[in-house]
């Protein structure tokens, strides 16, 4: 096991620099398709603790098409223009000029803090059908061309890359890819500790993430995978050679995880989890934000998956999920939450 930090020499997790951008604390919110939209980011920002937030990933080809039709910007960029910074936007495709064109728009027109390129998505629609995401890990040369062109188009806005360990367990090439990423001008590298073939099965391999660090000369290495408690975030910095961490799925039912992790890294006591009543109120606030954005009809349907996340791992979650999965109106949503959302367990009388 690689031990990176020595507590006697300074903070456990000092800020990282992504090009000219200081990220403090070095805890990043992962881009997640279908989830990290404007209302979710508002909730995360309310708690604090995330040094850099990210949008959902944006399909570059779709963006260019909208542009050519003079239509509005992609739905996934809603709110970005007026949102607090720092903020990263993640883009995906396999065509260097298309990605460069979109990167330039994001850097100049939207003035985002970071343009991130997705080389990690393992979903079939992105890999097999579009030959993008983690499919490109088998084509380091193409990755290099993409990064070089996007970096040139976005300057001085920093460009980063997110990868997996490789396409499959017998095709792990993350150390080679890391050198391509840095050599092509990227300002940071995020590595998810699984291969594309693993999808989200098994455990993320932090030893393999850590093994990449000696191959990077200047840019920060950000580790990602299975960070679902503040204690695990602390251990990632204590035990592995990473400069930053990225929290993904665990934040969907614990958006306060960033703030609690940041407190733990500062050596402060980890705050108590919000009570189930506070979590219910938070979910209702989230619901109203979603409805403000998408209207009640679409917002109610969209909120089903978030509501399921909020209940995850709580007593009575299955019953709640079963009912909330069918709601279509505001009244139904309120009623299901009132009736089925998990409540504090009453102590059994002795």
Automatic annotation (TrEMBL):
Keyword Nucleotide-binding assigned: yes
MF annotations from Gene Ontology: flavin adenine dinucleotide binding; tRNA binding; tRNA dihydrouridine synthase activity
Domain annotation DUS-like FMN-binding: ranges: 29-340
EC number(s) reported in the record: 1.3.1.-
A Pfam family it matches: Dus
Enzymatic reactions: a 5,6-dihydrouridine in tRNA + NAD(+) = a uridine in tRNA + NADH + H(+); a 5,6-dihydrouridine in tRNA + NADP(+) = a uridine in tRNA + NADPH + H(+)
Signal peptide per UniProt: none
Keyword Metal-binding in annotation: no
Record keywords: Flavoprotein, FMN, NADP, Nucleotide-binding, Oxidoreductase, RNA-binding, tRNA processing, tRNA-binding
UniProt-listed InterPro entries: Aldolase_TIM, DUS-like_FMN-bd, DUS_fam, DusB-like, tRNA-dHydroUridine_Synthase_C, tRNA_hU_synthase_CS
Positions of FMN binding: 31-33, 90, 162, 192, 248-249
Active site residues according to the UniProt entry: 121 (proton donor)
Cofactor: FMN
Family that this chain belongs to: Belongs to the dus family.
PANTHER family linked to this entry: TRNA-DIHYDROURIDINE(47) SYNTHASE [NAD(P)(+)]-LIKE
Function according to Swiss-Prot or TrEMBL: Catalyzes the synthesis of 5,6-dihydrouridine (D), a modified base found in the D-loop of most tRNAs, via the reduction of the C5-C6 double bond in target uridines.
Entry protein name: tRNA-dihydrouridine synthase
Organism: Aeoliella straminimaris
Gene designation: dusB
